[in-house]
Amino acid sequence: MVAPARRLLILTEGQWHVHNAKTAMGVIRYGTEEVVALLDSTIAGRNVAEWMPGHDIPAVATLEAAMALPSPPDTLLIGIAPTGGKLPESWRGTILGAIRAGLAVHSGLHTFLGDDPEFAAAARAAGVEIVDYRRPPERRETAVGRKHRPGSRSILTVGTDCAIGKMSVALELRRSALKAGDRPAFVPTGQTGMMIEGWGVAVDRVISDFVQGTVEWLMEQAEARGDWVIVEGQGSLDHPAYSSVTLGLIHGATPQAMVMVHKPGLAEHDFDHLPDASFPIARLPDFIALHETVAGLVAPSKVVGIALNTSLYPDEAEARRIIEWTESETGLPAADPVRFGADDLWPAIRRRVEALPWVVANDARGGA
What we know:
By secondary structure, the chain is an alpha/beta fold. It has helices at 22-30, 63-67, 92-100, 117-126, 166-179, 191-197, 211-223, 243-253, 284-296, 316-330, 337-340, 345-355, 357-367; strands at residues 7-11, 34-39, 59-60, 75-78, 104-107, 130-132, 153-159, 184-187, 228-231, 257-262, 302-308, 334-335. It has two domains: 7-132, 3-Layer(aba) Sandwich (Rossmann fold); 153-367, 3-Layer(aba) Sandwich (Rossmann fold). Helix 1 links the parallel strand 1 (7-11) and strand 2 (34-39). The longest helix has 15 residues, at 316-330.
């Protein structure tokens, strides 16, 4: 029996901006469930379409205003992904009010709302569910060096920084692959991807000994869903805070190919909780080589395309010039999949992956 679709009220109070509200924006852009309103008093009376054209979603100031809508919500979704994943203390009253009004609560924070005694008691009394998407699975396995299914193709999105669009790029590539008649599967490895897809694991919450093993069995599940397995990347290999999850994905997924995500104009790594720290963004050619070397410690992999986030360049002509320059600098096909789509990038990536010698050899192994 298929569960009925939820009607979401997304809470972003005071944090409706690209960095912290990336969960809200991802669910709005790629999710399949109805978003009835944004709960954020700082932008109340405005509409999400101002920032995300094509998404007619009002912003309301109060829970009461949301419940008075013609199609009221049945689920409160926590729409932020702040550094450290902590719950803003000022949000407690809103969350309790939502539970008492009969709304389920879905959260991707590191703070598990279901373990909070006050929230848990209120949810029991109201008969509603609290879902913590970052709660790690009970299945705990170390890596066993799993091989890819012959005939499957595996691609991991990697990036020069955090929060620049690795999930969005993976989803746009899947969209273009579907249009091209291929059979892709998207592997969610973070809370927002899980909210969109309804499965997966938030690997940044998994005990480090089990990260690679967890990614291995995620790959096995994905290969049963499609022939082109597109894995959502996390973190950045040289980020001083979040490099470990990137390494775990590279060595757990053993991707046959990688797509490098880059945000032109961004000079330093996101490190907002250490404002005096300075960690420059790596140059693309050097960073591409580094990823191929690190991946090759376990299994060969090649960067086969560049996905740019040109949001710092509002002029479309300038953005396209940057894309062309990136292709010249790296010798790889490049595009901004979110801004311009991935319909041209996907065939170029597909051709490069099909020609990789380890892909050809893996197919031959299945035919032996």
